[in-house]
Each structure stands twice: as C-alpha cells, then as structure tokens.
Amino acid sequence: MDKQRRKFLKMAGATALAGISAPAVVKLTSSPALASSGHGAPAEHGAAEEGHMAPAHGTEEAPKGVRLGMVIDMRKLYGKPELMEKAIAACNKVHNIPQIDSKKSEIKWIWEMPFENVFPEHSSYHASKTREENDFLVLCNHCDNPPCVRVCPTKATFVNKENGIVAMDFHRCIGCRFCMMGCPYGARSFNWENPRPYIKEYNPDFPTRMRGVVEKCNFCGERLALGKEPACLEAVKESGAIVFGDLNDPESEIRKVLEKENTIQRKPSLGTKPSVFYIV
Amino acid sequence: MIEKVFKGNSRYWMWLAVLCAFIGVGAICYIRQFLFGLGLTGMGRDLSWGLYISQFTFLVGVAAGGLMLVLPYYIHNYKVFGRLTILGEFLAIASIIMCLMFIMADIGQPLRGLNMILHPTPNSMLFWDMVVLLGYLGLNVICGWVILTAERKQVKPPKWVYIFVYVSIPFAVSIHTVTAMLYCGLPGRHFWLSAITAPRFLASAFAAGPALIVVACLIMKRVANFDAGKEAISKLTTIIMYAALINAFFVLLEFFVGYYSNIPGHKHSLEYLFFGLEHNGHVYNNLVPFMWSSVLLCFGGLGLFAYMKIRKTGTDLMIGIGCVMIFVALWLDKGLGFVMGGLVVSPLEEITEYYPTANEIGITLGIWATGFLLVTLLYKIAIGVEHEVEA
C-alpha cells in the first residue's frame, strides 16, 4: 500500500467513525429538554427527575407540576363485576385493544385479578370474605419513579413532564421487552403478532399498533387532551368508584378522597411510587 | 491471510457443509419469524424473554472467558499461553457476533435496531451493553488481526496494539458485568435482584470460555496438527477448576439467602429450578432434570479434574470429557436456568413455564452454527499462520 492511499483510508475511517458516533455524543451531552426536542410532546425521559433526588424518610418532596393519579374505590365495586367489565370494555374499545384469546399473547391495559396477585405484599392469613371473593381492577400505575422508563434503551417509554403520565411511543419501540422485565406490576403487553385482525370494533380516533411493540395503559392521555375523562372512569361514572385528578392540587377531588380515606398502593416497598391508589 | 480458509481437506469441507445446513435451516426459521412476529416463539406476556436472551447471556460469558488467556500472557508474561491467546481473541469475536445475532433475533422490530444508537439512553443498561459489546468486538478484531499479521511476518507486533490489548482486559470484565446488570437492576424480580449476579456470571464465564478453548485445542491436535502444549492445557484446566468451584460456591450462597431468610420471593425460583414449585395444586418442575444434570456434570467434571491432578495422569480424552462436562453444566445453569428461573413467577404472582417452539430452536441452532463456522474459519487462519511460520 502506498503512503497516499494509506493516508486517505485513515481519513475516511476517522470521518466515518465520527459520523456514526456524532448523534450519540450530541445526545449524551445535551440537556434533557434538548434530547426530547422533535419528539412531539415535551417529555422528561430521564429517570432521575428533580424532586426525586433526596428521598429522605417521611419528608419526600413530590414532583412539581400536574401529577395525574387515580383512586379506585373497591368498596363501590365489590359484588359488581359487571361494573368492572364495563370499564374494561370501554378501554378496549377506545384504544383498539385486540381481543386475543390466549393467555400467552393477550394484550390488556386494564383488567381484573384476585387480591393476592395484585397486592402480594399485603396478603395475609384469614383475609376477609370480600377480599377473597372479589377481583380487583389493575392497570399501569404511572409511577413517579418508573423502572420501565429507566431501562428502556430508546426512550420509547417516557414520563410526560406535563402530567406525569408514563407514555409509550409505539414508533420508537424496538420491541426488546426490557420494560416488561422492569415493570414489577405486569402492566405491559407485547404484540407477539399483528394485532389488527383481533380488533373487534375499530375506533378511528386512536392508532392501532403493529406487531413487535410494547403497549399499556396511557391514562387516556389522548382523551384528556380533548377535555374528556379517562374511558374507564366515564364508563362507571355513576358508581363513583374511580376518582381521577391532579395529585399536586390540594383542591382537587382526588386529594380530598386521599385525605379522607385510607388507601394502599401496590408493592410500595419497591420505591416506584405508584399514582394509582386503592380503597379496599 | 483470509485465503487460508479456502484450503482444507475433505473433513474440513464436510464440517463446513454440516454447519451451513444448520445455518440454512436457521435462516428459513428466522424469515418465518420476521414475517409473522415473535408469536412464533414460546415466549408470552408473562414470560417475555426466552431462549434467545439466555443464549446471549451465556455467550457473553464465553467471550469474556478469553480473558483467562490474554491476562496471564500479556500482564504476567506467562509465555506458555503464547500459542493460545489468539484463539481466545478469535473465540471472543465469534461469541460476540453470536450475541448480537441473538439480540437481533429477539427484538420485535429488528429494522428499528438503529434506534439504540440514534437515541442513546444512558439510563438503560441495554445501551451500555451495546457499547461494551461493540467495543470488545472491535478491540478483539484489532488485537487478533494485528498480532497474527505480525506473527506471520515474524516481527514484533507494533507497540500501539498493546494499548488495545490492555484496554481489552477491563472490557472483557465489563461485558459480563453490564450483562449481569441487565438483570440485577430490576425491582420485583427476586432471583435476579442479587448483588452476586455479576461475580457469579464472571466466575462461570472464566470456566466456560477456557473449557471451550481446551476442547477446540484437543480437536485441533487431532485434525489440524496443532499442539497447544501439555503445560498450557494443564494450566487452563486449573483455571477452569477454580472458576467452576467459585461459581458453584456462589450458587450455594444464593441458596443460603433464599432458604435461611425464608422469604418466599427469594425461594420461588430456586424451588422451581431444583425441586419443583407447587402452586394451586400443580407442581411446576420442567427444568428440574436439567438443573440436577448441571449439578452432576459440574461436580463430575471437577472430580475428574481433581483425579487427574492428584494422580498426575490424564489422557486428552479425559481432559476433553471433563471440559465438555463443565461447559454443558454451565450452559444448563446460565443458558437455561438463570433466565427461565427468574421469569417463572410473573410480577402478578402467576406461574408460567417456558417451552421453546421448533422455530425458535431452529433459529437458535442456526446462530450457534454460525458461531461455530466463524470459530472454525478464524482458527483455520490462526493455525495456518502458525504452520507457515514453523515451515
């Protein structure tokens, strides 16, 4: 090899390497706000947000801004499985959730489960009859400190900075399913095959998904944007079993319920700080 | 040097043909999966990682195991490994390529793979895993090739390459540490949420990688007229013994934590893997025979080595059997038990057993065959150069 050619190859190699790694370098050094630009809604991707940094016992500071949460008053759902099914059906319909009849590949955003599955840390001997006979409503907890967001390698799942919703970008997801491993609540589903043939009633207002991506409850972010309430809440509105609102607003209905009633959260010991509360 | 792969006897070509047949089947299976989706695998909502990820985890260890040759030779100037280091480096290249193939086979949207680089995510361990894997691959390609070229020309390798050699040593540790961090940073998965995961991975890697190299050396001694030397093989078996013992010790520590603390979450996986997990009147135990085979093979292999060391005997066949036993034991432990055991109890306290489908096994065998093909070709080059220098 003559010197000229070797020199050229060196230059070409270095240029190519710089070209490949440039986006990585830029993204790693830029601020979170910059990193999320061009991504639709402004979003906080990092797991370590302000307000989470100093978890002193008892005096933890809640994240600032609007923080959406949900209270599920199970007392109003005991003995009324039809109400829960109504809420689930409403969600399925609004979000084009495929109805796949196999435990292996099913997709669910909100569903029913026995108490000891939902609250393994709270289960005990001699549980009450109501607890044993009734199923509990389960959905994504939209945690303050979501492990799914921490592990996602492409920021396909992220915390929406404006309202605390843990959202999914279906177009960004590469389908590694790491978020499903990270979620300690089993709230995430994966499209093992093309879901579209399994959609019973198509709703043109919400996108359908393609195979190979993860999906889950989004707290009806798309409906909130239009000033509507979450579909599950709307379906069981007359029962008052679901309360939804801003956890950071002391005047909100949800805060009043939380101040008055004793509530529990799922697996509190994991430190994920769920935004879904249960009155059991 | 590449031309060396085109010269070989009929047995060499037969071996390549067999591997290519497996690769062909694997490719067809992959096309099926690519067109239909991951629904063709045995994975599901509750058990969403399977054979692909567990093979990836195991092979990262095989790649890191090459360190046990590189470190004594370059750091401690242990000359006996002189003829072997290149084999360790080439094995690392093939293993990492297999790892990357397993990851590609496992993701639901393989065409979006570049999102990992276009949207780098420092909070995700998977991102760092990609970084260290690609880094280690690059380092081994550079070191292996440059040193082999120098050997062929019978000159000393250029000084700059030693920087890459030394950097590759922490990289070998990092690939397996970061892979362990994929697992041990997840809340709510007791079996994986253990600080000992990374050391356990490293111990098993430092046994599995060298074991494969010893087997390869013994085969090449018969078919390719390449002798690594008695002392080198003996030292390697010592390394394998220590590493396998430390790994077994770590597994026993997991048992202590689970059973002495008596916390159900810590016990479930071990119970499922070794004794069968009873739930609602049904006993889930499909991995029990595999895990006990792993135990027997591990201690059988260790016993065989111990016998050879004490009596100072041992034929190539005995050494080979010992290494195969240890390798298979570690594969069962890490390439099967570790991932499935951690997943068997879902976050919703349901139990799902995993059975890979034929299509999934086809792809897995295809990727393993690709790895063996790469190892064969790379070793052919290395030995070709060796013979050329001797001639």
Automatic annotation (TrEMBL), chain A:
Residues 46-60 have a biased composition (Basic and acidic residues). It comes from the Bacteria. Transmembrane segments: none annotated. InterPro entries: 4Fe4S_Fe-S-bd, 4Fe4S_Fe_S_CS, DsrO-like, ET_IronSulfur_Cluster-Binding, TAT_signal, TAT_signal_bac_arc. GO terms for molecular function: 4 iron, 4 sulfur cluster binding; metal ion binding. GO terms for cellular component: cell envelope. Residues 35-45 have a biased composition (Low complexity). Residues 32-60 are annotated as: Disordered. Keywords: 4Fe-4S, Iron, Iron-sulfur, Metal-binding, Signal. Residues 1-35 form the signal peptide. It is found in: Cell envelope. Residues 130-162, 164-193 form the 4Fe-4S ferredoxin-type domain. Heterodimer of a large and a small subunit. This is 4Fe-4S ferredoxin. The lineage of its organism: Bacteria, Pseudomonadati, Thermodesulfobacteriota, Desulfobulbia, Desulfobulbales.
Automatic annotation (TrEMBL), chain B:
Its main location: membrane. Keywords: Cell membrane, Membrane, Transmembrane, Transmembrane helix. It is a multi-pass membrane protein. InterPro entries: DsrP-like (IPR054823), NrfD-like (IPR005614). NCBIfam families: DsrP. Belongs to the NrfD family. PANTHER family: POLYSULPHIDE REDUCTASE NRFD, PTHR43044. It is found in: Cell membrane. Pfam families: NrfD. The chain crosses the membrane at residues 12-33, 53-74, 86-105, 125-148, 160-181, 201-219, 239-260, 287-307, 319-341, 361-379. It comes from the Bacteria. This is Menaquinol oxidoreductase. GO terms for cellular component: plasma membrane.
